[in-house]
Amino acid sequence: MERKIGVALVGCGRIAPLHAKALKELPFTELVMTMDVIRERAEEMAKEYGGKGTDDFQEVLANPEVEAVEICTPHYNHARLVLAALNAGKHVLVEKPMAINVEDAKEMISTAQNKGLQLGVIFQNRYNEASRAVKEAIEKGELGQIRGARAFLTWHRSDEYYKLDPWRGTWAQEGGGVLINQAIHTLDLMQWLMGEIKTVSASCRRWGHPHIEVEDTAEAYFRFANGALGCFYANNCYPTDEPIFFEITGDRGKAQILADRATIIIDGESREVKPQAESVSHPAYWGRGHQIQLAHFYQSLLKGEAVEIDGRSGMVAMAMVLSMYASSATGAEIDFQQFIKGSHEVNGL
Ligand SMILES: NC(=O)c1ccc[n+]([C@@H]2O[C@H](COP(=O)([O-])OP(=O)(O)OC[C@H]3O[C@@H](n4cnc5c(N)ncnc54)[C@H](O)[C@@H]3O)[C@@H](O)[C@H]2O)c1
User: Fold this and answer.
1) Ligand 1 center to residue 36 CA distance, Å?
2) Could you tell me the pTM of the whole model?
3) 285 pLDDT exceeds 50?
């Protein structure tokens, strides 16, 4: 039998049960510790999924049975916790966004490299059957030369949602609004499927949530190195959570994703890709991929291979968001590679 990797889960809030459940069910992971600044949350999680609950992060770092740490805390403390875990010799899997500024992301990537540890970032939607099928169609050249992509996200986050926890809706702690929290998954899909980004031009505003600091509505135009154009729209002040629409067009065909289904149309012939298992015990808009991403991550650790969605990928998705803020605040089209190199971040609308 394969050996089990000991894992600690840090941050036992809304997303944590998805991680804990996967860690319990996967045959090669064991939840050794759960940790939250609110001790009862850590203890409840441990009771249900295993391990020892604590409110002491140092205890997690000092435990030799903990080989990997999963960070599921609010955005503003991802960088600090990830760096501490890496410096203590632990592999890390961090929830999106990996950080809220480029400098922190770079330090996280270089620390992992220097320590010979793996740093993974959660973007579970890449593991949906629909996303995989579209990626494969592009890589096989079925769509021909890629010309453009468009994505349309209209979701609902209520005023109550923003009152749930003090970090939500703030520049300092959430690091942004609909883009950095919800739409970052779709931005990540765009960069994964379209490749290197040249420029970003965006407009972000607060439209439907007067009591938050950050944007709840945004649009952007991305120019890609392959010459294609990406058109992007997102808001979280629509009355309902509607399925995300995503399309890639090439000169031979196109691929459309609506929620978790893909339609791939090549030379007028169309084929559908649907998820194999329908059952979801968590909101469908979170996607079904956490368990699959965790399985990939820990299999890579066991094989000593690089993880699939690494810090560099996580940084690009995060920088797409931050460059949109910079473009919106200055009115300028941003050179994306320069933005990552020089990092001129601007918070504010
Ligand atoms: N991948 C997805 O689809 C998805 C969905 C929802 C949330 N998320 C991400 O998961 C992360 C957590 O979001 P959430 O909705 O679960 O938030 P949450 O506020 O419900 O939970 C965060 C938990 O972290 C704890 N915490 C805060 N600071 C801590 C610290 N220093 N050490 C240990 N624990 C600490 C809080 O007490 C809380 O229990 C965010 O990065 C969010 O963007 C991802």
Assistant:
1) 10
2) 0.95
3) no
